Amino acid sequence: MVVSSLLRPLAMAAARPPLCSACRQLLRSGDVTPRQLLLRDVTIRQLTGGGSGQQQRSRRLRSTLYYVTAMGVLVGGLSYAAVPLYRIFCQAYAYGGTTQGHDAEKVLTMKKVEDRELTIRFNADTASSMTWSFRPQQREIKVRPGETALAFYTATNPTDRPIDGIATYNVVPFEAGAYFNKIQCFCFEEQRLNAKEQVDMPVFFYIDPEFDEDPHMENVKEITLSYTFFEAKDSIKMPVPSYATK
Asked: Which parts pass through the membrane (predicted)?
């Protein structure tokens, strides 16, 4: 026990940083013993260090809150921009079955492939936050590559307030999107429906005759055109492709 009590101050001294000059002067004067001085030094450091640690924790907490807030703003911004960004990317690369624009001259000169008939199916969906009722007027039609066709969708706003909508679309199988050309549709601009309003939305399209020459399309007999309506926000402006204004 005597050895332990003698070694404890030495261990405490080795574990603590060097004494300050004032403490060393007190030690030389003999007014305090080394043990008293060490205990005094430890008490002072604990008191002063406690405030510093609290300040550090407060700074870390503020930094964490800043990061969380910034992440929330970023995620919110991306959610608003997701629809137009997704559509721009798919239109540029015909990704995910996104349909292509039309060549006006080709529409006038293309020849119908008489011995190849395709079934075009129509699908309609709405996002979870969209309150419209949206459906195709026909479930399917028969067309041939090189032949123009007209289909209609119906949208209804059952609420008591005007609602703006934006449509995205794709084609299944995805590879057929490169041959599915729309001459007129309702997917390039915001659509506003007033309270209780119902409208018919046309889709005028054709299947490129080159569809029949693609070996990957040899066994394709059915194509599905799907539209999904989202409620538009003031910050979302869908760009209109150049061919849509010709």
From this structure: 64-83
